[in-house]
Amino acid sequence: MEIIHIILIIIAIIIFYVIFTYNNLTKLTLKVKNSFAGIDNQLKRRYDLIPNLVNTVKGYAEHEKELFENITKARNNLVDTNLETKTKASKETTRMINKLIAVAESYPELKASQNFKELQIELVGTEDKIAYARQYYNDNVMMLNHKLQTFPSNLIASLFNFKKVDYFEAKEEEKETVKVEL
C-alpha cells in the first residue's frame, strides 16, 4: 500500500510541475506580447508626434523638404504589423530624426522657437521610451527563450508547442555611427 501512495505522490508532483511550468510559460509568452505592444505604443506616440515636429520645422527650413519627405515615409511604415518592417522603419525614422535635429542646430531662429523646443523634448523623451520598451521586450524574450531551452521546462514547452521568439535587433549596418550631411 505504501508503494502505491509513493507512486501517487510522485505522479501528483509531476502533474503539479507540468501545470506550474505550463502556466509560467504562458505568463512569459503574454509578457513578451505585452512588451511588444509597449514598443508599438511608443512607436504610435512617435508616429503622432512627428507630423507636429515636421510642420513646426518646415516653416523655418523649407529647403530641407527631402528630409521631411523621408521622415514621413519612414513614419508611415511604423504602422506595418510585420516585425522586420516595423524594426527597419523604426531605425530609419530614428536616423531621420537625428538628421532633423542636426538641421535644427543649423538654424538659430528655429532653436529659439518655443514650440520646437517643446516638441524636441517630447521627441527625445519618446526615443528614450522606445529604447526602454525595446530593452524590456528583449529582456522578456530572453526569459521566455531561457525557459524554452532549459531542462526540464523544455520538455513541457515542446509538449505544448511553445515557440522561441526573436529579439528586437539592429542589423550590422544600423549599428554604425550615423553621418549627418546637410
- Major β-sheet annotation: none
Uncertain segments are 177-182
Name the CATH class.
Mainly Alpha
CATH superfamily: LemA-like domain
| CATH fold node name | de novo design (two linked rop proteins)
Q: What's the order of the H and E elements? A: HHHHHH
Q: How many E strands?
A: 0
Helix proportion: over 70%
Content-based structural category: mainly alpha
**Beta-strand proportion:** under 5%
Please give the alpha-carbon distance between the first and last residues. 85 Å
| Rounded mean pLDDT score | 77
**Total of domains:** 1
Would you give an account of this structure?
The chain is mainly alpha-helical. The protein has one domain: Up-down Bundle (de novo design (two linked rop proteins)), CATH 1.20.1440.20. It has six helices and no strands. The protein has helices at residues 2-58, 65-76, 83-105, 108-111, 114-149, 153-159. α1 runs antiparallel to α5 (114-149). The longest helix is centred in the first third of the chain and has 57 residues, at 2-58. The termini are far apart. 20% of the residues are buried.
